[in-house]
Each structure stands twice: as C-alpha cells, then as structure tokens.
Amino acid sequence: MNLQLKKSGHGPIGLDLGAHGIRLVQLQRRDAHWQVTASAAGIVPDDTPEDGAARSEALDPVIRELIGSAPFVGRKVVSCLPATLTLYKNLRLPRMPPDELRSAVEWEASDRMDLDAQTYRIQYFDAGEVRQGEEMREEIILVAAAVHEIDEHVELLKRLKLEPQAIDAVPGALARLIERQDGGGDDAPIRVVLDIGYSSSKVMICRGGRVLFFKLIDIGGRKLDETVAGRLSVSAEEASNVRRKSNGDDGGLNQQINEQASAEAYGPLVSELAREVGLCLRYYSVTFRGERPHDLIVVGGESSLPQLQEMLVAGTGTQVSGLKPGFVEGIDGLDGTVGSWAVALGLAMRQPSTRAARKEAA
Hints:
Shape: globular
CATH topology of the domain at 86-145: Dna Ligase, domain 1
Number of strands: 14
Distance between the termini: 17 Å
Number of helices: 9
Helix content: 25-40%
Oligomer: single chain
CATH architecture of the domain at 86-145: 2-Layer Sandwich
C-alpha cells in the first residue's frame, strides 16, 4: 500500500483525543521509512465535561496550545472518535459479491439493530469467511457512530482551523500501524493488540492490516484509579499519581509501601482483563480455525503497569511484547511510552484515499 503524499513528504497530523490524554503526531515518509517530524501531548483537564458541545469548547484551547507547541506542517488532520462513543457489533452474513455487502450491512444495522441512516453513520470491517454449521458465512464487524457525535468532533477540528481528511475508527488505526510495522502481505503474522486506555481497553486481532476481531472491555485507567483509591483511602487523583510512579523510582519507604498496596489493589482487575483477553482469543480460535496469533502487543496510555506482562502471559498463554523499537525513526523520543502513541501513529499513517473497505473504516 503506497502512501501518496505531496512533495513536502509530510502526511496528515494524527490526532488521538482520548478520555484522559491528547496526542498529536506528524510523520514524513522517505522511501520505505517513516520519521516523526512533530509531536505534542497533553492531559484532558479533570473538570472537562464528558461529552457534548461543552466538552469541545473546553478542549479547544488545550489542543490549540499543543498544535502551536510543535512544528506541524499544514492543517490536514486524521482523527477518530473515542471507542466508547462508537458501537461495534459482530454480524454473520451469507457470502455475497463485495458490491452487495455494504447494502446488506446497512440493512442489518437498520432492520435488526434500529440504527437508521439519519442518526448513525455505518461502516464495517470484513473479517473474512467463517464456517457456521455446514455453511460458509462472512464475518463482519459493524462500526456505528451517532451523527451528532461526528458533527461535534468535526466542528471542533474546524474551529481549530484544521482540515479533517477522515474520521477513522480505533481498530482501523491500530491495524494500519501493525501493518506498517510488519510489512503487510499474506505472510504477515497474526497479531493481538491490547490497547489499555483510561476509560476502557480494546482487544483487536489483525493480520496484514485486516481487522479480524475487535472488542471493548470495561476496564481502564479510571477503574484502576478508583480501585486503588478505595484501597489506600485517598482521592482518585492521588491514586493515579501513586499508580503511575515508575516502579518506585527515587521513592522513600512510604511511597514504596503505597506502590505495593496499589499493585495489590489493581492486581485482581488486571487478572480479570487477562481473562477477558483469553476469552477473545478463544472466540477467535473457534471462529477462524487455523494459525494461532503470534503474540500479544500491549499499547495505550495505561500499558506500563507493573506486573502487567506477567499477568497477561499467565492469563492468555500468549507471548507479550510491545511495538518494535525504531520501526519509525524518532519514535523512541516521543513523550511518554511508545505504546501510548499507537492510535495517533496509526492515524498519521492513513492514506489520503482508500479502496480497501475491508481494512479501513471511517
């Protein structure tokens, strides 16, 4: 898949606007290599409304300041709605020509899920053929977002004088990133991606840029903070500060005790998360009988929890890793963990146009 860029070589700004963090990144492609040319990251203020026009108004000055803090080129942007504002549903449809599939998906959304075209935008990922009894069916991952949520998001971007090129879906951005890392093609390994965010976690299975499975799990940084706060009898903000300490760096005895108590408090939640990921892998192995996923790549703003890797290995029986270091030049210099930039990087790698509906929904 070749990226058609202007002579400057700069792609669009990838804007990942999450529940807790904001990340913007721009890349330049030189032959087969990618390079980070600008990036900025910030925190969503605690008093920001959770949704609606008031949220957009509160975020406007925050994002505006981030844009002005780095040497971004141009105003083109690819963004995405938070996964929690998007509906995902697996469908099994009869096999049919590709040009008939969209109409069938839209009919299913309208007739069986009451998602009419006036209030929802419908896209989908074609995960491929699966066997259901004696028949072969098409496994479809339906993606739906309310029109008013999309309109509010686009209006925010326009107020910032940005030029929206696409409103992507989180699994599309993650799959695109993994495809660029692995090189794509039919011989690409099957990857499981666990994106641990603040409001939720996302499990995606993909191969060569094709999304095969996606599920939201209601466990994220917010729930971890609430659990730790209850254990330590502190505020959620204080619990977050304790939880985010890097394995006791420069901490005194009290800090180390609090970090140990923090890990003990969120341990059961992480174990539950690992169990949910294991169930996702079981669904995949039953649905797509064949090669097992190669490994589990952990990304997201909450992906640096102590003991997380060990718990995931124990709960899933799958090797755990992160993104390959250095596959994008300058990636290791980004603010925070590399994994926390996964969605923003995938958005920044989006093509100006796409014909592969099975791979990219927007």
